[in-house]
Amino acid sequence: MSTSTMRLAIVGAGPAGIYAADLLSKAERDFEVEIDLFEQLPAPYGLVRYGVSPDHPRIKGIINALRDVLDSGIIRYFGNVRYGEDITLADLKKHYHAVIFSTGAIRDAGLDVPGIDAAGSYGAAEFVSWFDGHPDVPRTWPLEAREVGVIGNGNVALDISRMLIKHADDLLPTEIPTNVYEGLKANPIEELHLFGRRGPKYVKFTPLELRELGEVRDVDMVIDERDFDREDAYADEVLSKNKQVLVMTRIMDKWRQDQREREANGERASRRLHMHFWSKPVEVVVEDGRVAGLKIERTAPDGNGGVIDTGEFEVIPMQSLYRAIGYFGSPLDEIPFDEQRGVIPNEQGRVQDLAGERIPGVYATGWIKRGPIGLIGHTKSDAMETLECLLEDRDSWWQPEVPQAEAIPAMLHAREVPYTTIDGWHRLDEHELGLGAAEGRTRIKVVPRDEMTRIARGE
User: Fold this and answer.
1) Superfamily assignment of 5-106+329-419 in CATH?
2) What backbone torsions phi and psi does residue 349 show, to the nearest 5 degrees?
3) CA distances from 377 to 16, 59, 299, 380 (A)
4) What pLDDT, in 10s, does the model give residues 399-409?
5) Residues 260-269 pLDDT 10s
6) DSSP letter, residue 49
7) Listed residue (19, 27, 60, 23) closest to 432, CA to CA
8) Please, where in the chain does CATH 3.50.50.60 lie?
9) Which string of DSSP letters, residue by residue, matches 438-456?
10) Average pLDDT, the chain
């Protein structure tokens, strides 16, 4: 195929989509590229803006790098445009040579235990969307429980545990929206229980996340000594050589020592966080339709990195429960979807139909491609793999009927889609920074979608 200019659509303006655009613009090629980035929200950055705890400014620093790409002039940004509603696959084929879907994974993975759907049982993604000010979720959250459970041993589990147990005033230096601060201020929590199916050396936390958890003001870390006295040949031989595991073991050993000293001195904080290892959820205890406790079965190491059941059961009282066991992708209009894995079926980013046949012109990158694994930094290598396939497939790209760049804003205008642009994002960004400055804070997010859109469009 011969073309002097390749037009590419990318659906999803999180790190995966922005990295893909940046890498393509810098790739060796004998043709020009025009890249249009479509995002369903009025603001870009995806989970970096709406999936990272507000008390993690270091992680959010990646926004600076993403902003540099958006401001480089290599991309046109169309925010507040919903794929499947405002723009369709047929539209993309009419105006572009190919599309890359980078829509991420924003739903919660399910947990198949009795009672998991009771009132007071939530997914972590829902809670994260609330405290990060996502415009499409309710403004309030039912923080009514004094005893709370969190299932999971990854960074998201630590994030939501920290947000639940932290005193609201300690979050004021962050960009939390006003409604979130007010909700957390009224949170009556006293005890939080964090559950992991395997032992303390198997956790998926990072040392930084774990250390930060123990530094939360007026919160005691409570450790069950039974979780540290199990013989585990696999952990001793394999995991103990891992530097991150060694660091986290030292952190938890310090918590154990601190706990012994507090108990000896009769000291107790107003809130406590209990870490439960070797604890497999088997049933949510339900009373009057609401969460009343979590029944767990104590597990034991099997010698190969897994666990076996012991037949020992315990019930921990609680009035609300959160599961943080992974994110899950969402299906896209007219695009195949793997319901088991929550991803678009693909081979190295080339989208396939459910029979395994390649679909020309359609690609995927990021979590919707590989599932919710890996840190943000892994997204670059993932995007590169997809782009290499895209460039190899030049002869099978679409042949757009209307490749002119000006056709896209004209189409959106004709459909009365109130889309936002990069300049509009700058207006919204400056507005949020101004709201924060007025109260001595870094930023205060604007939450309602219509208000975000109005500010971005200068209306």
Assistant:
1) NAD(P)-binding Rossmann-like Domain (3.40.50.720)
2) 100, -15
3) 10, 11, 34, 6
4) 999 999 999 99
5) 999 999 999 9
6) H
7) 60
8) 110-327
9) HTTSS------HHHHHHHH
10) 93
Residues listed for the chain: 459
Number of H helices, E strands in the chain: 16, 18
Ramachandran angles phi, psi of 379, nearest 5°: -65, -30
DSSP annotation of 27 = S
Q: Which two tokens stand for residue 133?
A: 């000010």
Q: What is the CA radius of gyration of the chain?
A: 24
pLDDT of res. 1:
44
Tokens 């993690």 belong to which residue?
Answer: 56
Fold of 110-327: FAD/NAD(P)-binding domain (3.50.50)
Give the tens place of pLDDT for each residue, 146-201.
999 999 998 899 999 999 999 999 999 888 999 999 999 999 999 999 999 999 99
Locate tokens 């918590």: which residue?
255
pLDDT one-digit tens code per residue, 71-88? 998 899 999 999 999 999
Structure tokens of 20?
Answer: 């893909």
Query: Count of alpha carbons within 13 Å of 251, Cβ hemisphere only?
Result: 22
Q: Are 350 and 335 in contact (CB under 8 A)?
A: no
- Report the largest interatomic distance among the alpha carbons of the chain, rounded to a whole angstrom: 79
Beta strands 346-347 and 350-352, pairing class: antiparallel
Strands 279-287 vs 290-301: parallel, antiparallel or unpaired: antiparallel
